[in-house]
Amino acid sequence: SVEQKPDQSTSMERTFIAVKPDGVQRGLVGKIVARFEAKGFKLVAMKMISASKQHLEEHYADLSSKGFFAGLVKYMGSGPVVAMVWEGEGVVKTGRVMLGATNPADSQPGTIRGDFCIQVGRNICHGSDSVESAKKEINLWFKESEISSYKSCSESWLYE
Ligand code: DAT
Ligand code: MG
Fold this sequence. Notes:
The chain has one domain (14-144): Nucleoside diphosphate kinase-like domain (Alpha-Beta Plaits). Helix content is 38%, strand content 18%. The protein is built from eight helices and four strands, in the order βααβααβααβαα. Strands 2-3-1-4 form a four-stranded antiparallel sheet. The structure holds 2'-deoxyadenosine-5'-diphosphate and magnesium ion. 2'-deoxyadenosine-5'-diphosphate (DAT) binds at residues 63, 68, 72, 102, 120-121, 123, 126, 129. Residues 12-149 form the Nucleoside diphosphate kinase-like domain.
């Protein structure tokens, strides 16, 4: 068998990244994927999914008391999203830096939100905010069998 165990070294992390319905509709899937690929992170799962209201309410459960919650769930369910799992050293924190601030008005140029969107309610992408949330989100969006373990040919040129 060529199957490999997931990398268990302490600094290797996985994060859940999603292109939201506006990012999909605006044709930004490739650009967002390209940034994570170019950085050196490893794509280990990806699928397009039209999420149910219940699924999205669970995904955003921590925000259920917010005034924008109903609108957020409606927006996220307004079309398919591209759900992904990316792996790499520090990918949770670095992934958030690459997305930029939640409100695109505050996102630095060079970040995904800073470069491609304008309003907080249409901020085109999602990224887990901690290793713990990443685990929860990956579990919610993916079955274990949908996540691939493989050795990237660039690994020895990315990590010393
Ligand atoms: P992030 O997506 O950066 O983790 P969050 O978890 O605080 O931000 O909020 C989740 C999403 O909810 C966010 O991407 C966009 C939406 N949202 C956050 N604050 C909002 C606000 N004040 N008005 C409208 N939508 C908001
Ligand atoms: Mg969040």
